[in-house]
Amino acid sequence: MSILRMSKTLIKNLLHGPFTIAYPLKKKETYERTRGSIGISIDDCIFCGMCERRCPTNAIRVDKARVSWSIERLQCIQCGYCTEVCPKKCLDMENQYTEPSFGTVRDVHIKCTNTQSPSES
User: Which domains, ranges and CATH numbers included, belong to the chain?
Assistant: First the structure.
């Protein structure tokens, strides 16, 4: 009796095809409230370090002296805590996933500061 039930399931699975998608070749559709990767508007950032202190995995690094903000993409768990505590709201959750890769991926954003004074231009 159990052999008939098992063979019915086996035939059904063979005729249906794969239940998964080939991810790198075929993109998965994203939904409106998808938590993707963290994006930053570096021009609005004041480099306070609140996002770095709130990150549970220590994926974010803020260097106020060098005026840079960086994130280790594969260490980030897309929890969104950093976006909640940002006083300038320059961080946001983008509606896309981090690209698959090997090794560590650290994105570094450096704020461009104008070193010329207005009288020199």
Answer: 27-112 (3.30.70.3270)
